[in-house]
Amino acid sequence: MSTKRPAKPKKRFGDCQECLVCGGKTISAHLGMNVCRACSVFYRRSVGKRVYECRSNTGKCEVSKGATCRKCRFERIERLLATSGEGEGKKSTDDSSPDSLKELEGDADHTHRCEASSSSSANECATAQPRQIVERIRSSYKTMCQIRLTSELLIRPDPPHPLLMNEDDCPYAQATFGTMQSSNRILLTSILGFGKSAFPELADLSKQLQWTLAVNFLYRFGPFESSYRADKLFPQYPDRIFAGFTYWLTHNYDEHYFSDCPNPIDKEHVMSSMHNHCKTHHTNFRTFMRRLKLTETEFLYLSALLFWTTDNLDVPDTLSAIAAQHRAAIMQELHVYFKEELRMDNYAARLGELLTAIQMFDKIDAVKENFEFLRLVNVFSEDSFVYRVLRDEAPQLDA
Q1: What segments bear the compositional bias annotation Basic and acidic residues (predicted)?
Q2: Distance CA 103, CA 45 (A)
């Protein structure tokens, strides 16, 4: 004769424990402690994603049921997690799933939401969320690099064997005036594709605005990427930076650089002037990048921020608003990357270092000044592609 197990007593509201955060009632433990479900959901939606300000500017607001200072509520949970250890408090054995996060977010009077739910440790609660922006950028940048590499190698007088047309076997070469012009044109073309791939809504903008963003990005991204790649590929040559994807140069401009310059020039005067102008920039870029030691993911996030840095552009307010929205979304993902993937609690200093790079490579005025000098000494002609880009003389694309 079979015997039935006695039914497990159903949890009742009267059996609730007091939430250690807000003082509300909870039947089940969350975050491995006697923390109510609403507080645990609030924490999970906040960690690594949101930065709050204290309502009283004291950091000592009362945290209780119905209290509205989210910063103090969040910090109280952080302190409890730091001192509780994993698995302390009353844990639920019920496997029912929680209500939707959207429904619970910001719920002030939440004592009625004391149903059982599965508990988890603080680390389990901070599971990494998909970072869609950086993955789009990663894929788009990879495509852009492949286009640049193949295009630059194919237009060489003696292209390498197809088996050598990859980054691992790439025959990097010293840049000349002509290869630098071609590389910049290829880069601008690939930037337009990169932008539409990484940020699909870019295709909805007018071609003129797409061009404006691409040129603006070129001036910032060019020295930023060239220094980053040179630090990776040429650590033993601190005076080198990239002048394209497959071409490098140094501030010691020589006869080789001007070997394919189409105009008659005073080479000694031009080389001396370019050396004096570029030496400090090249040195500063490489020194800064060596100290920064960017991870690939940090490089991609900064590239995205550089793309949407439009503060000095004369563009419609609608585009400025779009740029601001993208910068905010990128920054939010960057916080998640530090908090959830790298598990960094105090990353403010690192974030500050990264944002300094935005200013470090904002050298548009210096680039334009240098190009104007090169035109005056007859290196550039007024009808050359690079000089027309410099003067923002894009064709009437929407005509």
Answers
A1: 87-115
A2: 12
